[in-house]
Amino acid sequence: MPDQPRRRTTRMTLPEAERIVELDREGVLDRSDDDVAKVVFEAHTVVQRSAMWGSSPGHPARRKTVLIVVGAGLFIGTWIVGLLTPLLLGTER
After folding, report:
1. Taking a C-beta distance cutoff of 8 angstroms, is the pair 39, 19 a contact?
2. Rounded to whole angstroms, how far apart are CA atoms 11 and 13?
3. Mean pLDDT across the stretch 3-21?
4. Are residue 62 and residue 87 in the same domain, yes or no?
5. What is the pTM of this model?
6. Is residue 2 part of a domain?
7. Residue 44: inside a domain, yes or no?
8. Are residues 38 and 50 both part of a single domain?
């Protein structure tokens, strides 16, 4: 539906997520509450993704990194298909 956002998770910045993760590690947060558990899970996700991609969500450097990784994957995939196509089709003489 166009009225609903794509994801139903809480959007948070990297500093917010890091603080929530730290509070969770200290045992301050009550994870038995479903809403708190969802926020803690989203915070862990934001921190892990920022560690993997090198910046916080929505940052231009992160978008550039994602585009480079996807572009390199497409290039390598196309190259492999180009190499394997003659082998799969075979040449009959």
Report:
1. no
2. 7
3. 73
4. yes
5. 0.55
6. no
7. yes
8. yes
pLDDT in tens, 62-76: 788 889 999 999 999
> What DSSP line would sit under 37-91, residue for residue?
HHHHHHHHHHHHHHHHHSS-TT-HHHHHHHHHHHHHHHHHHHHHHHHHHHHHH--
Q: Identify whether the C-beta of residue 23 lies closer than 8 Å to the C-beta of residue 29.
A: yes
The closest of 17, 4, 24 to 58, measured between CA atoms, is 17
Q: Which two tokens stand for residue 54?
A: 């090198």
Give the domain extent around 16. Answer: 8-57
Structure tokens given for 56: 């916080």
Structure tokens at 13: 């910045």
Residue 2 and residue 19: Cα distance in Å, rounded? 33
